[in-house]
Automatic annotation (TrEMBL), chains A, B, C, D:
Annotated Basic and acidic residues bias: 11-21
Protein name, entry field: TetR/AcrR family transcriptional regulator
Gene Ontology MF, one: DNA-binding transcription factor activity
PROSITE patterns linked: HTH_TETR_1 (PS01081), HTH_TETR_2 (PS50977)
Feature: DNA-binding region: 48-67
DNA sequence: AATGAATGAGGATTCATTCAT
DNA sequence: TATGAATGAATCCTCATTCAT
């Protein structure tokens, strides 16, 4: 039942005007988009289905036609974000570049999309537990996959001797991505630090820490 | 603030003050303790006041006698945690040790207490937005204070030339504590890694990253 | 205003409009009617929403689908009464009759409808302060309009010399309508005095008092 | 049980400073005084016992020491007002003056005390139904007594031929006192009309209406 | 593909009152 | 004469979801 309409990942990019009483675009996309905004602003539980459909300019019936439940909307948001980030990591990780450069690029990428989709980022760790256990397991699995893929990069550097090997690769990933995922709690889009800047600093911190 | 009775958690430890024989069966203390557990398990919004008072063995009226609202209970939890961590950092940061050792000790400390109070840790970032705006501001201020105190340590190392100075101290703190605060999303108490181990690894990551 | 569905009381009289076969079993109409009865009997605060919906044979959800709040129900009652009385006064005041006859007719009318809608009358002055301030202002404005319209009649008689002019018209209206509005505190429907009788006596008192 | 402390009627006169966190005066008097103010401002049901005792600077226990219930406070207010007005009427009605002068004086008196104790006046008709049935009956009886006493004056004038007799004396009293009791809904203390002015106009209206 | 009335269970909170001290 | 912790029942309202149309 879930994910009735996959809604092309490109929609994530917000390529235009979907602010203000959203009229254009097809209904399911509009609903997810509006829900993202409201979940980020008020939290999942404090956002009523009514407020979502009102903001999307449709009725409840329409929403339940496309989604099984309120938490299905949340699931869609998670899916959208994970698809983008995983695809991105996959692309970068298999590029023909030195491992340090791939790690740097991946870090910059993940931070840039995290900030470009700041609402998704805010929602992610805050609302995971509101998801139905089954869906939660699914999300966790996808996230785990991402983690593993990144860990392989670290490992690769450790195996080749470019990185110190006296710290478990898993822990390195947890350390680094803890920092990345926490961005949404302190980063201000109107501050003096661009997403790229943060990305480069973070990559630099990681790579420095791994110097033998 | 808003509580009818401050019910300092320290009361539990019989610190001398003898107004009302505050034993561990003390109602407000029991309520906060039970709420912590339930909020961590089911989330703030999914925990009903009824379930809290049932678990604490009191009536709703009793709860509202001590706390203004459900979110006041949450505030109490935040306050308790912040007080402990700030006091700890203050103690360590002003110790007579090399700056690297103070940073290492502070990191180990914060991770150890984060894991010792795992429920508090799980609640912290997940539920902040459920707090009344005023209380949220208060918590943020206390957290900011903590951040500043730690940043001063980094700065100290940078000024003395022990640490590289080409990365903003603020960003270093955000990076490091992002990782620390994210512990609750992946750490398993029954795993093969003790709190001390994680603390030492994390401190090591940070200090390595700061090598000139 | 605040109602989801205007549910004009006139709908009950089948005035042509045929969207949703509005019969007298219409939910919002039934709710207002039942609420009127209960508010008059027990007072606004002592009437629970539960008792209203039980008496109307619907669920609470249904009530909140049509009305924003309990006090919105009260507002509807006020609106209904004011619409009727204002329309009536307007009709009589602009009739082609001597001013004394128009005043007499208006007084008889207002008393007859006050007694015909005795529950509304009982509620009116007793519960005004329970209304949300905004709604209260609205009601007050409509009531003021009524007062002004009646005052114009008095003035007319004073200007023409038919009435004594040494007493402010405003005060005359307040005096007269104070008496009218107080009916509900002493009038008994099962007494020996009909609504028409009271109306004629009251009109007579007023007109006598105004003799030059 | 009720009326534990009769609290000298003179207290009604508010002879001094019992505004601001009331400290002086004995507890029961302070409680009734504060309750009067709050009931007038927010209504009986919307005023919590807690807010009363807070405003009076005592605790709930103290209140329940002097009064049986919240509605006992209300009863006290009614009693206080009725005692004053009845005594006043009795004094004036039996004075050695022409009946018209006695009616005029009584009207001016009742309006002056109504305005001097404006809060009591506001509460009176609005909150009668909140009183326990027994107490309600008692109040009604006292009020009836007042009505009868005044009716006797009208009758006296009718019997002597000074007043027209073609309108029932009872109805005249209801008409006149309806107007008087309604004062609290429109009178403004800061307006251009003093209590005495209103009293004289009202008396004049009544006496004019009664001219044969 | 969409409406919107209706459900019904559950939620947080308030409050008059009691009672041991 | 007064305290204040505790009760427990009641209150208003919210909300995700369903379903006939």
């Amino acid at each position: 039942m879930s994910r009735a309409t996959p809604s092309d990942p490109d929609d994530t990019q917000h390529t235009g005007s979907d602010r203000t009483p959203t009229r254009s675009g097809d209904v399911p996309v509009r609903l997810v988009s509006v829900a993202t905004e409201l979940f980020a602003k008020h939290g999942f539980e404090s956002t009523s289905v009514q407020s979502i459909v009102d903001a999307a300019g449709v009725t409840k019936g329409a929403m339940y036609h496309y989604f099984d439940s309120k938490d299905d909307l949340l699931y869609e948001i998670y899916g959208r974000m994970l698809r983008v980030q995983t695809a991105q990591l996959e692309r970068v990780a298999s590029a023909d570049l030195p491992v340090t450069e791939r790690i740097r690029a991946a870090t910059v990428d993940v931070i840039e999309t995290s900030i470009a989709n700041f609402d998704d980022t805010k929602i992610f760790w805050r609302s995971m537990h509101q998801l139905h256990p089954d869906k939660q397991a699914q999300v966790r699995a996808e996230r785990r996959y991402y983690h593993e893929r990144f860990r392989a990069l670290i490992q690769e550097g450790q195996d080749s001797g470019e990185f110190r090997a006296d710290v478990p690769a898993d822990l390195v990933v947890d350390y680094h991505f803890g920092a990345v995922h926490h961005l949404s709690t302190w980063y201000r889009k109107d501050g003096w630090l661009g997403a790229g800047d943060v990305g480069r600093y973070f990559a630099d911190m990681l790579l420095s820490a791994l110097r033998p």
